[in-house]
Write a structure and sequence with these properties.
Shape: globular
Strand order of the largest sheet: 4-8-9-11-10
Number of domains: 5
Largest sheet: 5 strands, mixed, barrel
Helix content: 25-40%
Structural class: alpha/beta
CATH class of the largest domain: Alpha Beta
Number of helices: 25
């Protein structure tokens, strides 16, 4: 092998001088802070196809020769690059993790995936120096692979005695170390179809490519595929495990880069764009097998395209992703809508709230075998869905502490981990589509809707749109829904039979074709995914003067109720205005337009108004009250609670700490408060720990 390396070194020197001279000069100027020379595989192929083949088929020989040439080459700056690394990028042989086979072992491959775990960066010995216990001769042993190599005899070739010994002293201060890190690379969720389990591979990184990735990053790693024998407590097995010895690492910066859009695809996208009803077609393409819910489907379209994330001059980041919450009765197809959107999104993840912990949703620092007992960072669903859509079903079933972890992930779009000395901040730039059931299992028409959403107000306020889906008997709607469901199932039955052509007659075939045509989305899923990806890559709309005016008028118009009356509830907050702008940007993106027009503004104002009227209206006053969602109690009820508190304080002067309940209710009635409403407020204050009853008919403040 040494002879092969010597022969190849001269060829590599010539290649470096001809194709990489400028990069070499730059490297020598910044050495040793910068220690890697990145070489494109295509340049090697242009220089000598045989050399390129040698890199792919015998990477150990080729990379060792290239590294030796790099470290011994004369640079114009006079710097010796004695610890520089030769790293190969843009390798055409890109394998999926599930496609790795035994014939790939020992070859140079490029693997693309998602970083799910990463250990801390730690020193690894590459040249161990030992001292002989007999002659005190000092010699070195090169280290490679996964096992530490210890000598069994003193090195005679370098002047030692050659005697065998059970233990040679390791001289740590003379050993040569390099930074090392282990990461786990997993298949991207969007590459999986049909419920496939994602597969993973361990990757070993060394020197200057360590510590540059965090869980959730999408990377392309080029390296040599290695294997090692599995061992059990019964001994060695005939099965081998594989890992990748990383040579180079490239970040996938471009959003939705994994979706390849050909010129033919681009032509079809432009054809769609030029159709006047493209926006309506997009809405009809969302879950066509589910009847109705036009407003929700429109919101899901807007969530797919999302607004434009903004980095402001003061380094503040404003999110562009849209969060949507569906709260509905059982059996109204919430879960189906969630799964459909995740399947449609260029990048999407689905998880159930009941089975998700805070670590599973956000991120965790864990001690496990992967890190060999050390702490490792592990990414959760929201981090893995970065720059995509995360769907969380039954979010109301999550434990309170798990739900609290969502606050930062939704607004700041980051996930912070502080555990065992690991301080990390991971990105979770994704839109959240969540589904929940009402507090009592089904909506109660006698109780305000806002009271029936079993979620903390702080979390509710972070959703841009909240939809309520009520199952109310209505003959006309029920007939249409039932007909739609029956037609869908009938088409499915005929489709199952159509697989065996001999069993379907002409009449059934005609009916089948009509039924399938009715269920078929106007824009097929594959084209829609490419349409969304193209839009998010290339379209960054700006508000026109008309749109800016409409947004301002709508916001000020809603806030105006607070100008006229000091005691009026706060109708909406600036959060709703930001949501409006995001939705306007998303609608312009859906049309592939560079401008947010007045029509876009009007359309999204209609959606926001629809949501506000269903959830934000105080049923007692009929006025918009944002406190329903942001605080959890309307201003009317807050005023009543304040009045009750004052009444009890006044009565304490006469009765002491313990006040008769009837006296409180009588005084509340005199002030114009309904007796039932006063009783309700007192019960709420008891639940909140403000009041308690030491005995029947007596109430007292909790001191």
């Amino acid at each position: 092998m040494a002879q092969e390396i010597d022969l190849a070194t001269e060829r590599w020197e010539d290649f470096l001088k001809r194709y990489c001279w400028d990069e070499l000069v730059e490297l020598s100027n910044y050495y040793p802070e910068k220690r890697s020379l990145l070489v494109k595989f295509t340049d090697m192929d242009l220089y000598d196809p045989n050399l390129a083949d040698m890199v792919l088929e015998s990477p150990d020989v080729a990379i060792n020769a290239a590294t030796r040439a790099l470290r011994t080459i004369d640079t114009p700056t006079g710097v010796t690059l004695d610890e520089a690394n030769f790293r190969i990028i843009k390798v055409p042989r890109r394998l999926k993790i599930r496609d790795i086979r035994s014939e790939d072992i020992g070859k140079l491959v490029s693997i693309e995936g998602l970083v799910t775990k990463a250990t801390e960066v730690r020193p690894k010995v590459v040249e161990a120096v030992f001292e002989c216990p007999y002659c005190h001769h000092v010699f070195s042993v090169e280290q490679s692979g996964r096992q530490f190599k210890e000598p069994v005899e003193c090195d005679q070739e370098s002047g030692g005695c050659g005697r065998k010994a059970q233990h040679f002293k390791l001289l740590l201060e003379q050993c040569k170390f390099v930074n090392a890190q282990k990461i786990q690379l997993q298949e991207s969720p969007e590459e999986l179809r049909g419920g496939e389990l994602p597969q993973a591979i361990d990757v070993y990184l060394e020197d200057d490519i360590t510590g540059v990735v965090t869980p959730g990053d999408r990377v392309i790693i080029t390296g040599i595929l290695r294997s090692y024998q599995r061992t059990t407590r019964f001994g060695k097995t005939p099965f081998f495990d594989i890992y990748l010895e990383g040579n180079s690492l490239e970040h996938k910066e471009e959003e939705f880069e994994e979706i390849k859009i050909t010129e033919e695809d681009e032509r079809r996208i432009m054809e769609l764009k030029n159709q006047p009803d493209v926006y309506e077609k997009l809405i009809r393409s969302i879950a066509p097998s589910i009847y109705g819910y036009e407003e929700i489907k429109e919101a899901m379209v807007l969530q797919l395209f999302a607004g434009v994330p903004k980095e402001l001059p003061d380094e503040t980041r404003v999110r562009g992703d849209i969060h949507v919450l569906l709260v509905g009765d059982p059996g109204v197809a919430k879960s189906q809508l969630l799964t459909y959107l995740v399947r449609l999104a260029p990048r999407g993840l689905y998880t159930g709230g009941k089975s998700s912990t805070s670590a599973g949703l956000t991120a965790a620092a864990v001690k496990d075998e992967f890190g060999e007992g050390r702490w490792t960072l592990e990414a959760g669903a929201l981090v893995l869905a970065d720059k995509g859509i995360a769907a969380v079903d039954e979010i109301d079933k999550m434990r309170k502490e798990d739900r609290d972890a969502l606050h930062e992930a939704m607004e700041q779009q980051t996930v912070s981990v502080a555990k065992a000395g690991i301080m990390a901040r991971l990105n979770s730039r994704c839109g959240l589509l969540a589904a929940a059931n009402p507090k009592y299992g089904r909506f109660d028409k006698y109780t305000p809707i806002a009271e029936q959403i079993n979620m903390p107000p702080t979390l509710l306020s972070r959703f841009d749109l909240i939809f309520t889906m009520m199952d109310r008997p209505n003959e006309e709607t029920d007939t249409k829904t039932a007909e739609h469901i029956i037609e869908t199932h009938y088409a499915g039955e005929l489709l199952a039979r159509a697989k065996n052509v001999s069993k379907i007659n002409v009449a059934e075939r005609e009916h089948f074709e009509r039924a399938v045509a009715a269920m078929k989305p106007p824009i097929e899923s594959d084209l829609l995914r490419k349409y969304v990806a193209w839009s998010k890559r290339n379209v960054f709309p700006v508000m026109t003067e008309g749109a800016r005016r409409r947004f301002l008028e709508f916001y000020i118009g809603l806030r105006r109720q607070g100008y006229e009356d000091e005691d009026a509830p706060i109708p909406v907050t600036a959060r709703q205005l930001e949501a409006l702008i995001r939705l306007g940007e998303a609608r312009a993106r859906a049309r592939l337009s560079d401008e947010i027009t007045e029509e876009d503004a009007d359309r999204v104002i209609n959606i926001v108004t629809y949501c506000l009227k269903r959830v934000f209206v105080d049923p007692e006053t009929g006025r918009l009250d944002t406190d329903w969602v942001t605080v959890g109690i309307s201003k009317t009820k807050r005023d009543r609670a304040r009045s009750i508190r004052e009444i009890i304080k006044d009565l304490e002067r006469e009765y002491g700490d313990e006040v008769p309940l009837e006296e409180v209710l009588d005084l509340a009635e005199e002030e114009g408060m309904e007796r039932e409403k006063a009783e309700e407020i007192i019960e709420v204050m008891k639940r909140d720990g403000i009041l308690f009853s030491p005995s029947s008919g007596i109430i007292k403040f909790v001191r």
